[in-house]
Design a protein that fits this description.
Largest sheet: 7 strands, mixed
Radius of gyration: 19 Å
Number of strands: 10
Structural class: alpha/beta
CATH architecture of the largest domain: Alpha-Beta Complex
Mean pLDDT: 94
CATH superfamily of the largest domain: 2-enoyl-CoA Hydratase, Chain A, domain 1
Shape: globular
Strand content: 5-15%
Helix content: 40-55%
Low-confidence stretches: none
Number of domains: 2
Distance between the termini: 32 Å
């Protein structure tokens, strides 16, 4: 059904416009399936993604999450029909709606397992927030990314913290205020993307990378993600030094840590 999926994937609990496929290695492909609106999201789609993230976080068979879209584009952000309704909402209704989107961004950003955004085609507005919340994002020379909110009198508020973390404050000033389109290598240079692959190799390269990550120790990756979040904007002081020492001491005495070290010394593959 989807030509970018690796062989032998099994479909999980999917909804009409949000599909899920799990590879034998443990890669969960979360596919926004609304190509008729360039995978723009509405309230229902947001809630479905939130539910999927909650379930995937608890599923031991899921080791890596790949977020992508069907058709020509990754995501156009908010659905235009959805946007029409919020223009008539009260402040309270708009705040509740914005909080739901904000919760989606924080849930994806704090998802305990590695996340990869497979950015096919264009990502605009809120779609940029999704890719910035992932641990890494990959595209092609054809990938286009734009923080387009100010063009229509909106502000990239709920996605703002994650965009700034991903691309830095200086880049964010430029791209949020100019609404310039960053394509291909430009998107890498400003740190929207972690790297580029050719169109011909895009699917294979993303799938290979995702599968490779599944061989790493699951708990170690979870702890590493928490470490990165905790250290991102902290100064190096006595508290940070003690925290990092506590982390490595805890990991060393864990079953996973002991198995990894033993396997390394015995020159064999660890059994995680």
């Amino acid at each position: 059904m989807y030509d970018f999926l690796p062989p032998n994937c099994t479909e999980q609990f999917s909804s009409k416009e949000l599909r899920q496929f799990l590879s034998p290695e443990g890669v969960l492909y979360l596919i926004m399936d609304r190509p008729q609106v360039h995978n723009a999201f509405n309230r229902e789609q947001i809630e479905n993604i939130l539910l999927t993230l909650e379930n995937a976080a608890e599923n031991e068979n899921v080791k890596v999450l790949v977020l992508t879209g069907t058709g020509a584009n990754f995501s156009a952000g908010g659905d235009i029909n959805y946007m029409k309704t919020i223009g008539h909402n009260s402040f309270k209704e708009n705040k509740e709606d914005a909080q739901t989107l904000a919760f989606l961004m924080s849930s994806l950003h704090e998802f305990p397992k590695p996340t990869i955004a497979r950015v096919n085609g264009a990502a605009y507005g809120g779609g940029v927030g999704l890719l910035c919340c992932c641990d890494m994002a990959f595209g092609t020379l054809e990938t286009k990314i734009c923080l387009s909110e100010v063009k229509i009198g909106m502000v990239p508020a709920t996605i703002g913290p994650y965009v700034i973390k991903a691309i830095g404050l200086r880049n964010a000033h430029r791209l949020m205020l100019t609404a310039e389109v960053m394509q291909g290598q430009q998107a890498v240079d400003c740190q929207f993307l972690s790297g580029l692959f050719s169109v011909e190799e895009f699917n294979e390269k993303v799938n290979t990378l995702a599968a490779k990550i599944t061989h790493n120790a699951p708990k170690a990756m979870e702890i590493t993600k928490a470490l990165l979040l905790n250290l991102a904007h902290q100064s190096i002081d006595d508290g940070v030094i003690e925290y990092t020492a506590d982390v490595i001491a805890t990991v060393r005495e864990s079953e996973e840590g002991k198995e990894g070290l033993t396997a390394f010394l015995e020159k064999r593959k660890p059994k995680f």
